[in-house]
Write a structure and sequence with these properties.
The complex is a heterodimer of chains A (about 130) and B (about 325).
Chain A lengths: L7 E4 L2 E5 L6 H18 L3 E5 L8 H16 L3 E5 L3 H9 L8 E3 L2 H9 L6 H4 L1
Parallel strand pairs in A: 2-3, 3-4, 4-5
Antiparallel strand pairs in A: 1-2
Helix pairs in contact in A: 1-2
Chain B lengths: L8 H4 L4 H10 L4 H9 L1 H21 L1 H4 L5 H18 L6 H16 L4 H22 L4 H45 L3 E4 L2 E7 L4 H18 L3 E8 L5 H17 L2 E5 L3 H9 L8 E2 L3 H11 L17
Parallel strand pairs in B: 2-3, 3-4, 4-5
Antiparallel strand pairs in B: 1-2
Helix pairs in contact in B: 4-6, 4-8, 7-9, 8-9, 10-11
């Protein structure tokens, strides 16, 4: 579907982007463009970004991911970031980067479950 | 005692060809020394027995060193080993196999708990004994005797360095093992239920421990694919801004992974401190008691604890 280096697949009403390569600045920009274009084109209701292959995520990439999620939200698409590695989470938090307001899931499966529930309030918001 | 796998000291001490070359160079062991030592083989054969006896005269003469050789059988065995050690000094080849053999000697001494002071002290007597025999061997040619002694001294110091390195490496190994054990004990993650983990935190939380707690929590959450991690702080004596901050960070990191945390064991005084310190913990689930935390965790994974009713099962009263 997408021409960029990161494939974006469509499963039902959900887009799935699996990031398998280290994100350089240029890749990051084109990825964001590709994702938003695909949302526009397909009218997807959900977006899952799988970052389980990423061993490092710097603040720039983290911000880009958060921003992409915010942009998607403006277009009516809920984003779930799945598969973050423990070391990545620890580093981000230590840098003071909490990615607030971003939905996350432990695995792709969990992410798909969240999306198929229409990304309605997650368990934590319900309590 | 169980026979634990022997650590590979060759690897730990990074003893490869390059290191061997450096060591030989530093001890100024040259081909000339090797040749001289090799030519002293007959001398070695002739005197090894007497030198060993002289050495053990010193060792058995002092109560502190004597206790390492409790019976005749042990003594006979080590004397035999001592003889072959002595002959080894004159083998003429000082390669990695030689080093490996010397490390074994060091390990043996370390294992029986022979302190370095006795080990080094015995070497002093050893050198004196050799010196005496050399003067005898070379008759009155003091120059030759001195040269021979110097070559032997080089090899012996080379050997001693290897043995001491083994001692130090063995101590470090033990220490690392203990530290790992302590670390493991300080963060016991318990699986409460499917996808629910519990970490009771007991004792003071300093920065190092906080890091380790976060690391363990994150790895466990991913490994168990846990939706909920309960942190019970009933056993933490003082909760100050720092501790609160560490807990907040851990919570945030767990959320990044896609899990949640529940903080339990919050006493009245902790609640007061946290609010008075102005720590923002509204973002996390908190409960006073662990049992309440477990109930909340179960509700998050879509389960609940229900009272057993009469019609629920036959085995009730």
């Amino acid at each position: 579907m997408a021409a960029g280096p990161i494939p974006i697949l469509k499963i039902g009403a959900t887009l799935l982007a699996t990031i398998q390569i280290e994100l350089h600045d240029t890749v990051v920009d084109s990825f964001q463009n590709d994702v938003l274009e695909q949302i526009e084109k397909t009218g997807a209701r959900g977006l899952i970004i799988d970052i389980s292959a990423l061993e490092t995520v710097d603040s720039y990439v983290a911000r880009m991911l958060a921003n992409t999620a915010k942009m998607a939200k403006l277009m009516g698409t809920n984003t779930v970031i799945v598969g973050m590695r423990p070391a990545v989470a620890a580093t981000l938090v230590r840098m003071g980067y909490y990615m607030e307001g971003i939905t996350t899931a432990l695995s792709l499966e969990e992410g798909l479950k969240l999306q198929s529930n229409g990304s309605e309030p997650t368990d934590d918001e319900r309590s | 005692m169980q026979q634990a796998r022997q650590p590979n000291y060759m690897e730990i001490l990074k003893l490869d060809d390059d290191e061997l070359r450096k060591r030989l160079a530093f001890y100024e062991l040259t081909d000339e020394d090797f040749k001289r030592l090799n030519s002293l083989k007959s001398f070695a054969d002739r005197w090894t027995h007497e030198i060993t006896e002289g050495l053990y005269e010193l060792i058995m003469g002092q109560p502190e060193s004597r206790e390492f050789f409790p019976d005749q059988a042990t003594l006979a065995r080590v004397k035999k080993m001592q003889n072959s050690y002595f002959l080894g000094l004159f083998s003429g080849t000082y390669d990695l196999n030689y080093v490996r053999d010397r490390l074994r000697v060091g390990m043996a001494h370390e294992r029986i708990g022979m302190p370095p002071k006795l080990y080094l002290g015995a070497y002093r007597r050893y050198l004196a004994l050799i010196h005496e025999r050399l003067l005898d061997h070379f008759k009155d040619n003091v120059t030759e005797a001195t040269r021979a002694l110097e070559s032997i001294r080089k090899v012996i110091f080379f050997d001693m360095a290897l043995a001491i390195d083994t001692y130090i490496a063995a101590y470090l190994e033990t220490m690392t093992r203990h530290q790992a054990a302590i670390r493991e004990l300080s963060t016991p993650v318990i699986k409460v239920h499917d996808r629910i983990l519990l970490l009771p935190i007991v004792g003071t939380v300093d920065t190092q421990r906080a890091h380790q707690i976060m690391e363990t929590v994150l790895v466990q959450v991913v490994e168990e694919q846990a939706k909920v991690m309960i942190l019970d702080i009933a056993g933490v004596p003082v909760v100050d801004t720092k501790v609160a901050d560490h807990i907040l960070k851990t919570t945030a990191a767990v959320q990044l992974l896609g899990g949640q945390t529940i903080l339990t064991g919050i006493s009245a005084s902790v609640a007061r401190t946290v609010v008075e310190l102005g720590v923002e913990i509204t973002r996390m689930h908190t409960r006073a008691k662990l049992s309440e935390g477990i109930e909340l965790a179960l509700s998050i994974v879509g389960k609940k604890i229900a009272p057993k009713t009469a019609h629920a099962g036959g085995e009730g009263a």
